[in-house]
Specification:
The complex is a heterodimer. The longest helix of chain A has 46 residues, at 29-74. Chain A is elongated. Chain A is built from six helices and 17 strands. By secondary structure, chain A is α+β, with helices and mostly antiparallel strands. Chain B is built from seven helices and no strands. Classes of the chains: A alpha+beta, B mainly alpha. Chains A and B meet through helix 1 and helix 2 of A and helix 1, helix 2, helix 4, helix 5 and helix 7 of B.
Chain lengths: 348, 173
């Protein structure tokens, strides 16, 4: 790069020096005071920015809190009872309440309270050979009551004659008592405004009845006034599922509908029915948005209706008759004659 | 043919003061550097009022960070230069928005004076103008300018060459 601008360079140097010399400026006290004013202005600007940042952070936090509270109302978090992480997880759904997981036991009692006061009793009966999983009470929509957790200062108590239990409480009056029946069923009692001796008395009654029968051992009338529990005795005959089918261009479409005493049992039955069928890659079980996704049954979606009916739609998208036969026999819905007619239709 | 802008044996000014000692107090730094910094800012901005405001703001920044500064003189100079660059950028942006004088050079005449040559600096992009002032007024080396501008020395050399060529083109038009 050759320097062919030497004249511009020297002229520029002179021009800059001349211009600089023309500037009459001194470091006067007035200029020094101006620096302090600049500094004060910068400090004020920074404080304003900090306040704005804090305001934004508070707004975001409040917004998040409202959002989380809304989520909690719609979908309370899953809870594993106690601090025992080895217990099977009970999936809590905001609309359907507790959901049993296939092969991990069955929910034999449930209570969905519409009252603000959370006084309810739920028992989750474990499957054979498994640790008992526990229910979790949740706040009804609008109540916004946080899920109680066993506190660190829980107190050991004796329920009845010799059953060990754990009693804990909260400052807002909630008391929680947990104990285990002889058959392994773990019971958690939650109550507001109930004296400790009353809670222990109810628990003792449950222990006594649990020993007296093979079932859970108590009926709704046995519960104290103000307590609500909806019980479904184990071993009761499950209602027969209803099924309908349609042959489409894509294959066989089967709609399965299960009615039960409550949505949990209905879903449990449906999940059990579908678990085999849904494991086939060619089978897709579709449901309405917001339904439970059952991991155990593969890509299975169920729909729960407020009238305690669970509905699933199975679409067999293959034309392979053997595949259809396998699914049909796995689901085993309808009468033998109905399914034979279906098989004939598919074969035809 | 000699143009009026060409130097006529005028000795170049040596405005650069001795390096500021690191153990100087703020008031000493202010008394010593306020004038030179304002002059530097005037050359960068072309406007004395704006230059004083900018230098006062730079001193305010230095005052805020005074306990943590190891080389207050160098930090002050960087503050002044950077704030002037910000001003020049804003000014250039304003020109582009108004679509006035965006690429228009100073009024072309055949006989430009030395002050006209200074005014011709307005056509330079902010970074080139800073490089020119630091090089030909403060007599900073290319390496020092590169450090202040955050570029490589080769880039400074290229910027200076192009700036001079651009100025020549303007003043000879």
């Amino acid at each position: 790069m050759t320097d062919d601008n030497g004249d511009v360079r020297s002229a520029l140097t002179a021009a800059l020096a001349r211009r600089a010399r023309a500037v009459e400026v001194e470091a006067t006290p007035r200029a020094r005071a101006a620096v302090d004013r600049h500094r004060a202005r910068r400090t004020r600007r920074r404080q304003t920015r900090s306040l704005a940042a804090v305001g934004i952070a508070v707004a975001v936090a409040l917004g998040s809190g409202v959002f989380i509270a809304q989520l909690r109302d719609d979908h309370p978090p899953a809870v594993v009872a106690g601090n025992d992480s080895s217990l099977p997880r009970v999936i809590v759904d905001g609309r359907a309440g507790l959901r049993p997981v296939p092969d991990q036991g069955d929910l034999v009692t449930s209570a969905v309270e519409d009252t603000y006061e959370m006084t309810q009793l739920q028992v989750f009966r474990p499957a054979d050979g498994q640790l008992p999983a526990i229910f979790a009470p949740w706040s009804p929509a609008g109540a916004r009551r946080p899920l109680p957790q066993p506190s660190g200062d829980a107190e050991s108590v004796v329920v009845g004659d010799d059953t060990a239990g754990v009693l804990s409480g909260r400052a807002d009056g909630l008391r929680m008592l947990s104990f285990q029946l002889d058959d392994g069923t773990k019971v958690y009692l939650y109550a507001f405004g109930v004296a400790e001796q009353d809670l222990l008395a109810v628990a003792a009654g449950l222990v006594q009845r649990g020993r007296a029968s093979s079932g859970v051992g108590f009926e709704p009338p046995d519960l104290p006034a103000g307590w609500v529990a909806r019980l479904e005795p184990p071993g009761s005959a499950a209602p027969r599922p209803r099924a309908s089918y349609t042959l489409t261009g894509r294959g066989l479409e089967v709609t399965v509908e299960v009615r039960a005493g409550n949505a949990f049992t209905a879903d449990a039955q449906l999940l059990s029915l579908l678990s085999t069928a849904a494991s086939a890659e060619s089978v897709r079980v579709a449901g309405r948005p917001g339904s439970l996704i059952c991991e155990a049954a593969g890509p299975c979606r169920l729909t729960w209706r407020p009238d305690d009916t669970s509905v699933a739609t199975i679409t067999i998208s293959t034309a392979d008759r053997n595949e259809i036969d396998r699914v049909v026999s796995a689901v085993r819905l309808g009468t033998a004659a109905e399914w034979e007619a279906l098989a004939e239709e598919v074969r035809g | 043919m000699r143009h009026r802008w060409q130097a006529e044996g005028e000795p170049p000014a040596r405005p650069v003061a001795a390096a500021v000692p690191d153990d100087v107090t703020f008031d000493e730094l202010f008394a010593r550097e306020y004038g030179p910094m304002v002059r530097l800012a005037v050359l960068l901005l072309g406007n004395e009022g704006e230059a004083e405001e900018t230098v006062q703001d730079a001193f305010a920044i230095v005052l805020e960070r005074w306990p943590r500064l190891e080389r207050p003189g160098g930090y002050l100079r960087s503050c002044v230069v950077n704030r002037c660059r910000d001003q020049l950028r804003r000014r250039a942006l304003g020109r582009r928005i108004r679509r006035t004088r965006a690429t228009q050079p100073v009024e072309a005449t055949t006989e430009l004076g030395a002050d006209d040559l200074f005014d011709a600096l307005d056509v330079l992009p902010p970074r080139r103008r800073v490089a020119v002032v630091l090089r030909f007024y403060e007599e900073r080396s290319e390496a020092e300018i590169a450090e202040i501008l955050g570029v490589r020395p080769g880039t400074v050399k290229s910027m200076l060459h192009r700036a001079l060529a651009q100025l020549r083109e303007v003043i000879e038009r």
